[in-house]
Amino acid sequence: MAVLAITGATGFVGSAALDVALEAGHTVRALTRRDQTARAGVQWIKGTLEDTAALAELCSGADAVVHIAGLTNTPDPAEFEAANVIGTDAMIAAVKGAGVKRFVFVSSLAAREPKLSAYGASKARAETLVEASGLQWTIVRPPAVYGPRDVDMFELFKTAKMGVVPLPPGGATSIIHASDLARLLVALAVKNTRRAIFEPDDGREGGWSHKELAQAIGRAVGKKAVFAPHLPKPVLGIAAQADKLLRGDKAKLTADRVGYMAHPNWVSRWDRKLPPDVWEPQIEGELGLKATADWYKAEGWL
User: Fold this and answer.
1) How far is residue 200's CA from residue 244's CA, in Å, rounded to a whole number?
2) What is the pTM assigned to this prediction?
3) Is the pLDDT of residue 239 over 80?
4) Mind listing the domains of the chain with CATH numbers?
């Protein structure tokens, strides 16, 4: 069994990775901004990516580091640089300082098209730092991640319940359940995989067209069919302005997100798949979406 250091362990994907690591019998050191309830097998390290002492303590004695923490949405795109680029650079320094060799970095498919958004550009720059680190690194670019506790794709489930799912311009995307992604991250932390960039998914060849995904989410919430109009990019921009007025800094649709949402192809590529002896998805999309909708209902979200 290994000692795994995890950043972002209190977040959506990170908490799933923490659960998977503990179930596999590993010991976890987890970075946290706030006090956490004691948990068997977990050493909580209080600090942030700006706290070099906390990062040193997090990495000390670890067999591998899984860097999940990062900023995915903000009203101020300039904040992506500090969180995703400078934060990753600080983690690399801490990993090297502690003599840890294995480093798993969670990036995003948005890094493939850095000109479309400040978020994607920050992830692409972070990837460059990881590749130049000299560590035994692996980069994972997840597609759209969904599952219980997720607040981003929940917006689609919520509108589907009302019979409508507004879509970006025509295109396709891949998806992955958080539990499958968590299993992958833990597997990569303990296996000697080559330096590579992987793009996992739910196993659906060619991904999901936007309309197919909208209808699947509709079925998951009990709607036989939903109205799923494609909205042109200018209309999405207006919607982002409206969301900012309504929800302020908590807006889910931002101008930066519109930048990459309007891109037609966010399908995980076949030549970036994981070797089957390392990992394969276990949660098929249709079943995973239904189970996620059921969780939202049970928790009173829907």
Assistant:
1) 32
2) 0.95
3) no
4) 3-145+176-204+269-283 (3.40.50.720)
